[in-house]
Amino acid sequence: MSLVGQALLDCSYSDESATFERHFHNAHEIIYVCDGSVGLQIGGSSYTIGPETLVFIGKLEEHKLQVISEPYRRYFLQLTPAQLDHATGDPMLKSIFLSRPNGFCHSLNLSGTSIPVWGNTESVFQAMLTEHRSDLPYANSTAMALLKLLLIHCYRISPASFPFSTKRFGKPINEIQQYIDENFTKDIRLDDLATRFYISPSYLSHSFREWIGSSPKQYIVRSRIAYARELLVTTSDPVNDIALRCGFGDTSNFIRSFYKETAMTPLQYRKFYK
């Protein structure tokens, strides 16, 4: 199945033990822990995640995970910003992936709750996994509908987990984030962003960091690095070409930035993961 028109980037189930060192994805991620427990660090927040708990990790959020108790059964899915927009254009429902104000909690325990018609949460993930792997008519539409149903259920349980309107700068900052997601390979400057969205550069920088969890510059660089990682593994393009394709002005700057984020050079990364 091609990625074009696909509802989800990935949807999987696993019961294998695993430890993941600090990393980030160029996509949003949901983990649903069915059994077992894990220690999870996302940015500066640390959690112990037990059964029947969802974890929402936004695009480019650094995280690492260590299994505490087994069996560690979980579902996980990833979706790009465009796929999230397709599944739900509702800014409130999307905010659990996008907004990171102070005190935000990435986890949501669903024990003792049931989703109308479907019952337990695991049944919804089983259905999403089935539809994701299916070639039946409307499989993508069904997967998107199930994801939206899950998000609505989570909102009804915990509206505070969806912090869209709690700050007056939330809406423009999310629009700026979306603009960067769509244009990070271009030359994006803070002053140009401020002009485009009619706010001052200092206010933009401060508000973006408070709302998203990183500065605009960090977000742009991490978007480029995430794209470069994908190209290094999926293509044989020269490093120079990948640097330019991802928006870096020169190869030396690309290599420095890549090493800072991954502790590897681009060629080392390609050799290790390809």
Beta-strand residue percentage: 15-25%
Largest sheet: 7 strands, antiparallel
Shape assignment: globular
**Quick one: CATH superfamily of the largest domain?**
Regulatory protein AraC
Please count the helical segments: 11
Q: Low-confidence stretches at least 5 residues in length (pLDDT < 50)?
A: none
CATH class of the largest domain: Mainly Beta
Element pattern in H and E: EEEEEEHHEHHHHHHHHH
> Which fold name fills CATH's third level, the topology of the largest domain?
Jelly Rolls
Architecture (CATH level 2) name of the largest domain: Sandwich
Mean of all residue-level pLDDT scores = 90
- Number of self-contained structural domains: 2
Query: Which secondary-structure class do the elements indicate?
Result: alpha+beta
CA gyration radius, whole angstroms: 19 Å
Distance between the termini: 21 Å
Helix percent reads 40-55%
The oligomeric state is: single chain
Give me the count of strands.
Answer: 7
List the helices and strands and how they pair.
Blueprint: E1 10-14, E2 20-23, E3 28-42, E4 45-49, E5 53-57, E6 63-79, H1 81-87, H2 91-98, E7 107-109, H3 121-132, H4 139-157, H5 170-183, H6 190-196, H7 201-212, H8 216-234, H9 239-245, H10 251-262, H11 266-273
Antiparallel strand pairs: 1-6, 2-6, 3-4, 3-5, 3-6, 5-7
Which characteristics define this entry?
single chain, 274 residues, alpha+beta, Jelly Rolls, Arc Repressor Mutant, subunit A, 2 domains, 7-stranded antiparallel sheet, 11 helices, 46% helix
